[in-house]
């Protein structure tokens, strides 16, 4: 419930009263299938590959960060190379990791993110790569960096800050990219995700990345907007795995051929 | 570019459906080509026209409209339009060709 002003105009006077009105959603319930609808498939609002965009922002690279960026050869964006000549981890079915699972491959209507909330945990299921990730929200503290080994999706805890679910993470494997444009990060990256259910059908996510080895200052993402998909649960599970044998064969028979490498057909 | 050929293999798998086909030139020489379509989940879910593992079969006659390969002489391309045995098969949502394919990746 929330309080909202109601305005009634009665003849010569205007009456303003406050009344309780029912909200048709629970802002602390993030569960459901969500399709991302915001445009950018990169961590932040950098050039989209579809043309220059308003608000273009370049990443605040450190020297080392810029050097790592140059080593990453993506198949998309302004630095795109033929996939045969690239090194996108996705091209070999390597795990995409967080935050890439959140901002790259979640595209309506077939690559969705499902959020499931159970006591003490939020679980995110990603259709693309059929991956999932746990966020512990049972009051535990985030371990220190030397207490965790780096892994693909990091180590995450969550808490409510008003109506915003704040996820704090560390311990990321630095082989993943932030997005399909090849933005890098180090093992010391820390990530804060802020989820807010704006209304019954809309979920917003803003991320702040802190990684002094790679970026000179905290880097804030654009606001990712997701729309709920109530039809998804009526359909069968799509099971969109990245299958290494299929990907390898495709690389040999199509990507390498298109890129001018020796034909394996 | 438009290419016509005879299907030798159809792979309806991730990450992209693939058509392999033979193209005969004016002198009768045969070149083997590969074409990819949009990502397989898109094909299955967005185009409700019955794409499946049996949509295309070896021996089918196809006509493809592709972006010219980025590398001269490469015999693989991204299909923008596809005709199988004289019938158009939409390869993108909305029933048409691949939007923005000229800028897309192969």
Please sum up the structure shown.
The complex is a heterodimer of chains A (265) and B (106). By secondary structure, chain A is mainly β.
Explained architecture:
The complex is a heterodimer of chains A (265) and B (106). In chain A, a hairpin with a 2-residue loop joins strand 9 (190-199) and strand 10. With 265 residues, chain A is mainly beta. In chain A, strands 3, 4, 5, 6, 7, 8, 9, 10, 11 and 12 form a 10-stranded antiparallel β-sheet that branches. Chain A has 3 helices and 12 strands. The longest helix of chain A is centred in the last third of the chain and has 15 residues, at 244-258. In chain B, strand 5 (76-84) and strand 6 form a beta hairpin. Chain B has 106 residues and is mainly beta. Chain B has 1 helix and 6 strands; from the N terminus they run βββαβββ. In chain B, 37% of the residues are buried. The A-B interface holds A 49-50, 75-76, 80, 82-83, 109-111, 238, 240-243, 246-247, 250, 253-255, 257-260, 263, 265 and B 11, 13-16, 18, 20, 32, 34-36, 41-42, 44-46, 69-71, 73-77, 100, 103, 105-106.
Q: What secondary-structure arrangement, pairings included, does this model have?
A:
The complex is a heterodimer of chains A (265) and B (106).
Chain A: E1 2-10, E2 13-21, E3 32-36, H1 63-71, H2 100-103, E4 113-118, E5 121-126, E6 131-136, E7 155-161, E8 164-170, E9 190-199, E10 202-210, E11 219-220, E12 224-228, H3 244-258
Antiparallel strand pairs in A: 1-2, 3-4, 3-12, 4-5, 5-6, 7-8, 8-9, 9-10, 10-11, 10-12
Chain B: E1 2-11, E2 18-24, E3 30-36, H1 40-46, E4 61-66, E5 76-84, E6 87-89
Parallel strand pairs in B: 3-5
Antiparallel strand pairs in B: 1-2, 1-4, 2-3, 4-5, 5-6
């Amino acid at each position: 419930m929330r309080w909202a002003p109601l305005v009634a105009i009665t003849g010569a006077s205007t009456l303003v009263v406050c009344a309780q009105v029912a909200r048709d959603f629970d802002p602390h319930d993030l569960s459901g299938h969500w399709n991302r609808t915001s445009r950018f498939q990169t961590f932040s609002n950098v050039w989209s590959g579809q043309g220059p965009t308003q608000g273009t922002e370049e990443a605040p690279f450190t020297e080392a960060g810029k050097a790592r960026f140059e080593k990453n050869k993506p198949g998309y964006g302004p630095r795109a190379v033929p996939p045969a000549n690239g090194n996108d981890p996705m091209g070999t079915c390597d795990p995409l990791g967080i935050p890439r699972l959140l901002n790259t491959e979640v595209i309506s209507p077939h690559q969705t993110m499902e959020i499931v909330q159970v006591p003490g945990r939020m679980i995110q299921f990603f259709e693309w790569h059929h991956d999932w990730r746990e966020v512990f929200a049972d009051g535990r503290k985030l371990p220190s960096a030397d207490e965790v080994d780096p892994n693909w999706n990091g180590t995450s805890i969550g808490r409510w800050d008003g109506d915003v679910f704040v996820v704090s993470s560390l311990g990321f494997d630095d082989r993943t990219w932030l997005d399909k444009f090849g933005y890098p990060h180090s093992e010391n990256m820390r990530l804060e995700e802020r989820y807010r259910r704006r209304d019954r059908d809309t979920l917003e996510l803003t991320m702040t990345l802190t990684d002094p080895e790679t970026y000179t200052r905290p880097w804030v993402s654009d606001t990712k907007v997701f729309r709920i998909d109530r039809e998804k649960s009526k359909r069968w599970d799509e099971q969109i795995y990245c299958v290494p044998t299929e990907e390898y064969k495709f690389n040999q028979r199509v990507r390498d051929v298109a890129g001018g490498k020796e034909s394996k057909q | 570019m438009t290419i016509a050929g005879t299907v030798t293999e159809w792979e309806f798998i991730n990450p992209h459906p693939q058509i392999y086909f033979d193209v005969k030139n004016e002198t009768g020489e045969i070149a083997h080509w590969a074409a990819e379509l949009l990502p397989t989940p898109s094909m299955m879910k967005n185009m409700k026209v019955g794409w499946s593992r049996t949509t295309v079969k070896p021996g089918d006659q196809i006509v493809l409209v592709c972006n010219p390969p980025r590398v001269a002489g490469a015999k693989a391309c991204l299909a923008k339009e596809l005709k199988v045995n004289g019938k158009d098969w939409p390869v993108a949502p909305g029933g048409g060709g691949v939007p923005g394919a000229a800028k897309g990746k192969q």
